[in-house]
TrEMBL record:
<dbReference type="InterPro" id="IPR003819">
    <property type="entry name" value="TauD/TfdA-like"/>
</dbReference>
<feature type="domain" description="TauD/TfdA-like">
    <location>
        <begin position="9"/>
        <end position="248"/>
    </location>
</feature>
<keyword id="KW-0479">Metal-binding</keyword>
<keyword id="KW-0408">Iron</keyword>
<protein>
    <submittedName>
        <fullName>TauD/TfdA family dioxygenase</fullName>
        <ecNumber>1.14.11.-</ecNumber>
    </submittedName>
</protein>
<dbReference type="GO" id="GO:0051213">
    <property type="term" value="F:dioxygenase activity"/>
</dbReference>
<comment type="similarity">
    <text>Belongs to the TfdA dioxygenase family.</text>
</comment>
<keyword id="KW-0560">Oxidoreductase</keyword>
<keyword id="KW-0223">Dioxygenase</keyword>
<dbReference type="Pfam" id="PF02668">
    <property type="entry name" value="TauD"/>
</dbReference>
<dbReference type="InterPro" id="IPR051323">
    <property type="entry name" value="AtsK-like"/>
</dbReference>
<dbReference type="InterPro" id="IPR042098">
    <property type="entry name" value="TauD-like_sf"/>
</dbReference>
Length: 257
């Protein structure tokens, strides 16, 4: 197992299989520290992918999204048959629930001829590089995250408050925690105009190019990331060819023994 640290976020772990006990033992720490883990050369199907995810904890699924046929725990992400490309902005998966998913992973099924990278931001660095006056302003505040873009059933969670400065569940290390602007409905202690201005400043700061890793997909890639310390988006601009991913999510952070 060979590990290469990526900048400004992430690690690439090569020469290892998804079912390798060494990888599974190391992943919670790697994800907590580096946010994203790229696992190239994984010639696996959905059963092996699901077994890998279940080794990290209980699986979860975003209500209203499209499941993979025969695998209801996996979400289908595809541009096939679309006349217009999908839209994606930097976000945290399903942050509108009280217990957002800990980890999200993608398995590359079809890679386009050109384009289609997934981008990740380092939210530890975003907090550490925040202007001191702005950091003081956000300390102790919460953002109300709300659902957009999916149809929920009656009784499903659709809104949750989370700290703007959120401690990582494994390490306790603080990071900036927000999501796409349309899902940040309110900030505690601020009126609507002040809240929108503050969130826009935090979002712009978090997603600067110098804080962003572009992962260009290769066949048989598996990529997993920690939703507590990264934002992510798919870059659909200029995509040529089919882009198909299978996505799985783990509910809770695995804390090393």
């Amino acid at each position: 197992m060979e590990t290469q640290i990526l900048q400004p976020v992430g690690a690439r772990v090569s020469d290892v299989a998804l079912d390798d006990p060494e990888l599974r033992a190391a992943l919670p720490g790697l994800l907590a520290e580096h946010g994203v883990v790229v696992l190239p050369g994984q010639r696996v199907g959905n059963e092996e992918f699901l077994a890998f995810l279940r080794s990290l904890g209980e699986l979860t699924f975003t209500q209203g999204e499209t499941p993979v046929e025969g695998h209801p725990d996996l979400n289908l992400i595809s541009n096939v048959g679309r006349e217009t490309p999908p839209r994606s902005t930097f976000h945290v998966d399903t942050s509108y629930v009280a217990r957002p998913p800990a980890y999200t992973a993608l398995r590359a099924v079809s890679i386009p001829e050109r384009g289609g990278a997934t981008q990740f931001t380092n939210q530890y660095l975003a907090l550490e590089s925040l202007d001191p006056d702005l950091r003081e302003r956000v300390e102790g505040r919460t953002i109300t995250h709300v659902v957009t873009g999916v149809e929920l059933e009656e009784g499903d969670e659709s809104s949750a408050e989370h700290p703007v400065v959120r401690s990582h569940p494994v390490t306790g290390r603080p990071s900036l925690y927000l999501t796409t602007l349309s899902r940040c409905a309110a900030v505690s202690g601020l009126d609507a105009e002040e809240a929108a201005s503050l969130v826009a400043r935090l979002y712009e700061h978090s997603t600067r190019p110098e804080n962003t890793l572009d992962h260009t997909w290769a066949p048989h890639d598996v990529v997993i990331w920690d939703n507590a310390c990264v934002l992510h988006r798919a870059d659909h601009s200029g995509v040529v060819g089919d882009r198909v991913m299978h996505r799985g999510m783990v509910a809770d952070h695995a804390v090393p023994a």
